[in-house]
Amino acid sequence: HAPLGETTAFVSWYADYWFEEPITLRAFRALLGVQRFFGEADNRTLESLLARSKDDQYAVTDQLGLQVRRAVEVLIQAIDRADQDRGRRLIGDKVSTDTLFEAALTVMMRLVFLFSAEERGLLLLGDPVYDQNYAVSTLSAQLRETADRYGEEVLERRSDAWVRLLATFRAVYSGIEHETLRLPGYGGDLFDPDRFPFLEGRTPEEPWSTHLSDPLPVNNRVILHLLEALQILRIRVPGGGAAEPRRLSFRALDIEQIGHVYESLLDHTAVRAQDAVLGLKGSAEPEISVSRLEAEQGKGRDKLVALIKEQSSRGAPAIQKDLDRGPEDPGRIRAACGNDERLFQRIKPFAGLIRNDDFEQPIVIAAGSVYVTAGTERRRTGAHYTPRALTEPIVARGLEPLVFTGVVEGAPRETWTLKPARELLALKVCDPAMGSGGFLVQTCRYLAERLVESWERVEREREGAGPALRITPEGEPATGAPGETLIPVEPVERIAFARRIVADRCLYGVDKNPLAVEMAKLSLWLITLAKDKPFSFLDHALRCGDSLVGADDAMLAEWAGAEVTGDTVFSRLLADRLAMVRAWRKEIESFEVRSLTDARAKRDLFAKADATLVEIRQACDLLVGTRLLGLKAKDQHARLSRLFAAFTNGTVGGAEAQESMAAARRVRAFHWPFEFPEVFEAGGFSTFMGNPPFVTGRDIRDGFGVE
Description:
A hairpin with a 7-residue loop joins strand 6 and strand 7. The protein is an alpha/beta fold. Strands 14-13-12-15 form a 4-stranded parallel beta sheet. The protein is globular and about 75 Å long.
């Protein structure tokens, strides 16, 4: 099933098995028999079934999200255990728990990208050297073969699989140029070895290109579980017992479904245990400290049961039964306590409640260790997964007035006229709360399809006027100038090129969660990935911040006691700095990333633009932060006057300034005109595209009426 510009899906039948497994023959006949094409209602034709199958895959993404979250837990436990075995010298207090969680999540996102790229033929899968030494698609099979032959415990004695993954990450980032293997570098922050140097046993002051690494000893059993969490879905069959393992095809996985993994991970965070912590049974899989369990137990058994019921979503009778049963295998509990007899005696009354991890070991987290637990980040940031079934109609309806003439005037659809390519590429579309990028991905698809239609219209109009027409992305005839960008002729390459150029020029997004920004980049990289070309440069367009909190030039001018047009320190600073920044940012959008050299050139331009705005951001943070402190009007005015004088004299840095800036940065204040100055110079964004504010039916009715 290969719709143009969409993920290709496939299924294979093996006739040799039809006598042994007649159900597969019945499936073949039911799906591809003549009855399916000519004797079924419209909603049961093959085309309809394929469309519904795509829409029904959210159960798959739910399970994938759960498995990836557990894989992140396993990886963090392995890193923490390695750090503990080395006397906390590897990480200790040098790496925050937030950074550790982000690193583990990034490893999983790297693996998602590699599986997707390998299955779509964009890397070197099939090359014997790559398959044996770099490919993630073959690594799990190699590890599983060893585990099945000798037992999984044998994998705990080696760590070469982790080193192989790190080598693959480096290869994707910088490329390989060798007589036996050639791979282009893709660049991008996602695979940057210096982003989380501790994974390779280096400090931030030791760049990967000049310093030797001493990778963390993450054993092969952990790597096998990471890979199988992504490759093997364990689906519970209705009416069945144990979960049925099914291999996942990343060729058939939508970008939005990968985004669902992100949503489930935002529910969790990494924390360092202040006391021993137990992982308890239950659908909520809670982690509760032993001291809290002891405190509730001291209030009476009913209080203890009530706490566990609330945290675990289990029934009281089941909890009572586990408390009465006690430990089934005291030896395993004692081993999980590190043979600490005092800790074992504390845990013993609650041992029947403890769940096992993926290695079938009781989850007992010692004080000082790092573990993953449910957090409040998703509720705090308001991040929610948006399925394609919702993004498609919203994006189409929202963009039609911008890409067709006749829509705004209310003309019949058949009379609408598609605007020329130059106007389509001038559109600036922003999602102010982009999450994992679902709306931006669909916007990229939609605009790319309209862009291809516009190019094809130009070709049709010029057909027969001379030699075969080659045109630029703006739809203009080629001039033959050196370095001129021309659109591809092949349809599949053309839609891929259209997506890349739309991502380069038209898409913007903001989110207050930094992990969401990284996931949105990954989503757009996956949909715009082209063989032998690096990642599109997106850092200047996808930004981290709170869309609802920030300052603009008018607010700064008001703070200075003058109009925007007045000759103040702000007006001079803004005029000079913004002119330079706009020029650099326009240059970023002016050329396509065809090589790592192009990507580095864009990165350098963005770094210059970003550094030039430091003082302007500082002024904005001082103003917004002071207003966020909740001071009385008189006190706020006095502080702002003092801060303005200090800023003008270049002496900002006292306690008041630090407090104000900290307040702004705590909420990640986002100063729109200074983050996207080239957009605001042209009058602002063409449209905002994103989730509506979801509320319940009664609230909608009460607020807006029945209609």
